[in-house]
Amino acid sequence: QVRLVESGGGSVQAGGSLRLSCAAFGFTFSWYTMAWFRQAPGKEREFVAVIRRSRLNTAYSDHVKGRFIISRDNVNNAVYLQMNSLKPEDTAVYYCAATFDSTSVFPEYPHWGQGTQVTVSS
Fold first, then answer.
1. Which end of the chain is more exposed for a tag (fewer CB within 10 A), N or C?
2. 119 contacts 97 by C-beta, under 8 angstroms
3. What is the rounded CA–CA span in Å between residue 94 and residue 4?
4. Cβ contacts of residue 43 below 8 Å, gap of 6+?
5. Contact status, residue 70 vs residue 33, Cβ threshold 8 Å
């Protein structure tokens, strides 16, 4: 049974940093594309970053490019999101997601975590 568990959220002032973690259980982690999404109050969920099977194959939303870094540890079955230079508009619930689809540019993600809250104050 696939399970994704996020942690590391919290409250931080603008300009600060946070590191989110997502622990994966129940599947062969190294075979899966992993991504982070976020959803702010009153807004639709949006893509943040993705890392494919190769740790070198990553992509970012324009909103976070240059500030956030996604990485993965295929030994410990975890994916991370290092968030630097945080802004109030980064405030959202952040979700970890997994898909076996490694070829689509915009794959569907059938597996999701419960989310972790990130709040950035000005």
1. N
2. no
3. 12
4. 92
5. no
Inter-CA distances, 93 with 30, 34, 61, 105, Å = 25, 17, 16, 24
Helix (H, G, I), strand (E, B) or coil at 36: strand
Q: What's the DSSP call for residue 90?
A: G
Alpha carbon dihedral 22, 55, 18, 119, in 10-degree steps, equals: -60
pLDDT in tens, 7-40: 999 999 999 999 999 999 999 999 999 999 999 9
pLDDT tens by residue, 63-102: 999 999 999 999 999 999 999 999 999 999 999 999 998 8
Q: Which tokens is 57 given?
A: 């194959």
